[in-house]
Amino acid sequence: MSLVGFLIDSMTKSSAQRFEAATKNPVQAQTEKIMNMVRKNADSEYGRRYGFSAIKTIEDFQKQVPVVSYEDIKDDMERLVAGEKKIFTAEDPVMFAQTSGTTGDPKYVPVTPTCQGREHSDQMRTWTYHAQEAHPDIFKGKVVSLVSPAVEGHTPTGLAYGSTSGFMYKNMPGLIRKAYSIPYPVFEMADYSAKYYAIMRISLEHDVRFLATANPSSIIKMCEKASENSDDIIKDINDGTLSGSFDIEPHIRKVLEKKFRPNPNLARKLEEARKQRDGVLKPVDYWPYLSLIGCWKGGTVGHYLEKFPDWFDPDGKRKIPVRDWGYLSSEARGSIPISDEGSKGVLTIATNFFEFVEVEQLEGQRDDPSKWNFLTVGEIEKSKDYYIFITTTGGLYRYDINDVIRVEGFYNQTPEIVFLRKGRGMTNITGEKLSVNQIISAIHNISRESGATPDHFKAEADMEKSRYIFRVEFTTAIDPELQKKFLKGLDRHLKTINIEYKAKRDSQRLKAPVLHVMKEGWYERERIQKVEGGMRAFQAKTQLLSPEKIVTQKIRPELEAIMEIED
Hints:
The protein is α/β, with parallel strands linked by helices. The chain has 21 helices and 19 strands. It has a 6-stranded antiparallel β-sheet. Strand 1 (95-99) and strand 2 form a beta hairpin.
């Protein structure tokens, strides 16, 4: 074990032990957590408003404190952002995490000193401990991890808002930082293409053993960009330079260029590897000892993992293990995966307080929370799907994050969960109640069946014409006959998966779907627009199912072809 690996193991072991102890009695851990939170914040404005000082049990908490969405607390949050004190917590925030809101305005999530304390550090350290136990050499080389900038702006009072992961990356201990390939300033680059170029220009010279970022689409994009720009990268490695073709801020360029030295031997090896693969540069050749990939494996982004073998194991000789990153959002980390199996993770019972409502019950009475039966950690069951509600040390109480999770099993006595989808996100034109998971499954099935492979896809509900539009960017061009086969098969698989969809289609209440074949690069251009509009480059998530159709004039320039079928 390397010195860094030894130090990381020592730091993470005690965190894992504390987490292990909590999982053996989750009801006690959750009771202690919520009682501590209400006692600590009883004198906050929110605590006085809802009588925190009188709360003695979980039942008291549920009776006195309302379920809220961000819109419900938006006015209070804006006051906090403006500099007012002790609104949600006794502690003042030290920064805000920022994420996209449902109405278009960004959401601000308070980060308090407690949010940066031991309990929260224990979460990632526990993940790391179990990952290193299973893969002992992940710290023998370099780590490539992608984060967003720690500071993306400031509130009117000067308090920073940005990425909590970026903050941790920027402020990690110096010895630990040496294990990471990418200098933090790279993540502050404004130009999206330049950032990816710099990441791959730097990391291709390193013996990368561990690749870590939440979104697997970012990993695919790293691979694609390295290959697309391989001429420049190989030349830069040979010469010890950083290409002038990319818009890199002068002060960041200066920092990076000091680190480079000519490396003609590696440049020759990369050139030879590229020739052997018909001009494509792949990570199997430049990171031959990669031991683990950490990223999301399920939910709406899991389909990207189907592309991993082509980049990381094209010869079928050495499959790279992938461990799920955990149920994670700007509001909270909800789970800690402790194995490579599936995407399940152990609920973070020592850090947040959780409540659950069965999906069928909530969606049957979605506008009346008083009718929802809230369950706690000791009451939820294996193989059932629930809406999850969180209470955090940052001041979100009984917060409706609008996520659906499934209980996959139990670790000790604590539920292991997977994220399924955003909630209340099903589309419902005529009662078919089509979910994003059903769309993903149907797309995967017809892709394997037809041989037409989508790089990216999105479904939109065309309410006016009672039909679905499937916008697909295929890996390679396909002829009209295969387009028709793909669309017909997609429709057929949806009928098989969803009996209500079949009933509505058979009765022609739901019209035949339409396929929009999108031009190459459509998804990337849309992603860049989102980034330029303020969304973080490495966390931009694809909305695979939308209840609204994009206006025709906006999408027309991106259309390659339209395929329709008859009922």
